[in-house]
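SEQUENCE-TO-STRUCTURE ENTRY
===========================

Backbone structure tokens: a row of integers, each naming the local backbone shape at its residue.

Task: work out the structure tokens from the sequence, keeping to the layout shown below.
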Amino acid sequence: MAKMKLATRAIVVLVTLLISSHYNTVRADGFTNGAEQFIKSLADDATSSLTSETLTEKERQKRFRGLLNSYFDVNGIGKWALGRYWRKASKNERLEYLVLFENLIVGTYANRFNKYTKEKLTVEGSSRRGQFALVKSQINGGKQKPIRIEWRITRPNVNYKIFDIVIEGVSMIRTQRSEFSSVIRRNGGKVSGLLAALRKKTTKSNQK
């Protein structure tokens, strides 16, 4: 539970201001150097777009959704998070799930960003593992202990996209998959159970 709280705080901070050490480091190349610049651009865009205290909740959510779709492989992350249940879902369930998944992220994080304006993200290097660039970074600020973050970056076409973030050893995408699988199992192995839970949660987020 403590790790989950840390991960939640860290992901808000890092997206506002702007995967673990188990991978072998290799010499940076054009792909990894580009991935480093990509993360720095995210930090700059997030800082300029999301941290103003004058933004309304609706406008902050709109801007966050734009950044989310520009910098993250939202559909790819959503499919992976659903795991083996993606194959079991009907076409309509898949379509609804992807919409609800994006709404969940926006509703959970968008309006928390104005609380984190003093932290600074520092990129500390990158390496490559297969089709992924791994960008290491650290968040510093205030009296909190620095938070280690590693970004897993892909380039499915000409554009870079974030596929996973590991914060102090906790993978966001694996954590989400575990939570979704647990909900589905409690509902008889049916994706419809997860969809119902996501509808309820996203509706509550939109009403805040």
